[in-house]
Structure formats: structure tokens, C-alpha cells
Amino acid sequence: MTTIRPFTCEDLFKFNKVNLDPLTETYGLPFYMQYLAHWPEYFQIAESPSGEIMGYIMGKAEGSGELWHGHVTALTVAPEFRRIGLAAQLMNILEEISETKRCFFVDLFVRVSNKVAVDMYNKLGYTVYRRVIEYYSGEEDEDAFDMRKALSRDQDKKSMVPLPHPVRPDELE
Ligand SMILES: CC(C)(COP(=O)(O)OP(=O)(O)OC[C@H]1O[C@@H](n2cnc3c(N)ncnc32)[C@H](O)[C@@H]1OP(=O)(O)O)[C@@H](O)C(=O)NCCC(=O)NCCS
To answer: Among 81, 90, 134, 165, which lies 20 to 30 A Cα-Cα from 18?
Structure first.
């Protein structure tokens, strides 16, 4: 049986196998510690009965006024545990936490080439709000889709109305 529980500092020493995935961003330790300190409820891990890390989600709540929203910073599932609904379950938890915080929407950034993830987010009710030019830097820079899903507080789904033009990273609020 899968256990979903809060991510702890010790998990940082065990998540290498999951993070080896090229589409999973790995950040410096202070970055993870900041999330653990500020938004521990948004950092959840899925663990197998033998204690193996199956996947995790890391997020936060930010913004002001009608831009108050939940944000998915990282979502990853180890290859051997994919297609059993773990990512959908972790996303659902993040959305429920955002609902209790009275957020207007949940958003995330995803590489435009990451078709599996883009399709999955579409299936979970997310749509592309805007394209962010060269959001990801690397050997070859890549654009991101900023995808959003309105929560119950945004009844008119205003937060999801797509921008008609792409933006640059320095234009992000
Ligand atoms: C994207 C990712 C998180 C999906 O995790 P997962 O646990 O396998 O996803 P789920 O089992 O919850 O799938 C939910 C739905 O997404 C879609 N989906 C997920 N993986 C898919 C795949 N490989 N091919 C087609 N559809 C897929 C399906 O519609 C699926 O529902 P279904 O199985 O009922 O058809 C996982 O592939 C991953 O960790 N990828 C690398 C990291 C990454 O890209 N993270 C997102 C960056 S923003």
C-alpha cells in the first residue's frame, strides 16, 4: 500500500533515484529547506511499503488579491511507479490544500516539450494560461507553458482566460 506523508529533511538524502529523471529539476538544499520551513503542508511524499520513495510534490501558496494561488514547484514519480495514479493523487492533495487556503487557482510551469506532463495536466483540468519564452535555461533554452486550474473561489474561471501573447520571464509577476 502507498503511504502519502509529509516530506522530511531526511528524505532529501534518499530522493536521488527519483530525481535522476532528466525532466525532474534538482535544486540546491537551501531551496528545499525553504519549502519545508514555509509550506510543509505542500511538500508531500508517496512511499512504498518497503520505504522506497515513489514520488513527491512540492509547492507553495503565493500572490495577493485575485492572484493568491497555489503553485506546483515540483512533481515527480519514479519510473517504476508511473501510471498508477500517483501524480494525480498528489496534485489532488495540493489542490485541496489550496482550496482550504482560499486560493483562486493553482498554477505550474512545464517544459513545452514535456508532452506526457502537459497532457496529464490537461486531463486534470489545467489549461495553458500563457507561454513563457526561454523560461528554462540550459544548453538549449526552452519555453514553458504556465498552466492554470481555477479553484472554487474563482467561480467565473477568470484566472484561466489565456493571455493572447507569450511573455518573457522578467514579465512574470
Ligand atoms: C508526469 C508524471 C509526474 C506523471 O506521473 P504518474 O504518476 O505516472 O501519472 P498518473 O498515473 O497520475 O497519470 C494521470 C494521467 O496522466 C496521463 N498520463 C500520465 N503518464 C502518461 C503517459 N506516460 N502517457 C500517456 N498519458 C499519461 C494519463 O491520462 C493518466 O491517467 P490514466 O492513467 O487514468 O490514463 C511522471 O511521468 C513523471 O514524474 N515525469 C517526469 C517528471 C515530470 O515531467 N514532472 C512534471 C514536470 S512539471
So the answer is: 134
Q: DSSP states of 21-45 as a string? A: STTS----HHHHHHHHHH-GGG-EE
Q: Is the pLDDT of residue 1 over 90?
A: no
Distance CA 131, CA 112 (A): 8
114 touches ligand 1 (CB under 6 Å): yes
Phi, psi angle pair for 169, to nearest 5°? -55, -35
Domains by residue range for the chain, with CATH: 3-164 (3.40.630.30)
Q: Is 151 in the pocket of ligand 1 (CB under 6 A)?
A: no
The mean pLDDT of 108-133, rounded to a whole number, is: 98
How far apart (Å, rounded) are the C-alpha atoms in residues 11 and 27? 14
pLDDT tops 90 at residue 9: yes
The mean pLDDT value of the chain amounts to 97
